[in-house]
Amino acid sequence: MSGDVYDASTRTRVMRAVKSRDTTPELRVRAACRALGLRYRLDYARWPGRPDLAFPGRRRAIFVHGCFWHGHDCARGARAPKTNAAYWAAKIARNQARDARTLEDLSAHGISALVLWECEVRDEAALADRLRSFFA
Description:
This protein has 136 residues and is of the alpha+beta class. It has helices at residues 8-16, 24-35, 67-70, 75-78, 85-108, 124-135; strands spanning 41-42, 53-55, 60-65, 112-117. It has a single domain, classed as Endonuclease, Chain A (3-Layer(aba) Sandwich), CATH 3.40.960. The protein is globular, with a radius of gyration of 17 Å.
C-alpha cells in the first residue's frame, strides 16, 4: 500500500486536473499586462524555458510559478507532502534547478526575466507596480 489517501483512479483524476497553462495566477498577470497596454506572446517556444509571457520586442520574459511546484518559501510552497516525500522533494529540486538554468540561459541571450509567484499576484496594485518597474 502506498499510503495515499486516494485510490489510484481518484489520484489519476486529481493529478490530471492540474493545469500547466491558463492557470488563475497566469490569467491575473495577463490581465494586469493588458491593463498596462503591454502586448505579449504566450508560451514563447523560441526562447529558453518557454516563458509564460514573452515580450520579444522588449526582450523581456515573465514566468508565473506555482508556489508548491517550484518550491517557493511562502506557506504554500513550504508545505511538503507526507506521502512519497522523497519523490516530491526530488521533483521540486529538479524544477528549481531547471528554473535557475533557464534564467541563466535567458540572461546569456540578453533577455531580462521576471519570476512572479502564485502568492504575489493576488494583490492587483502590487502586481501592477511590479510590472511597471520591470518594464521601465
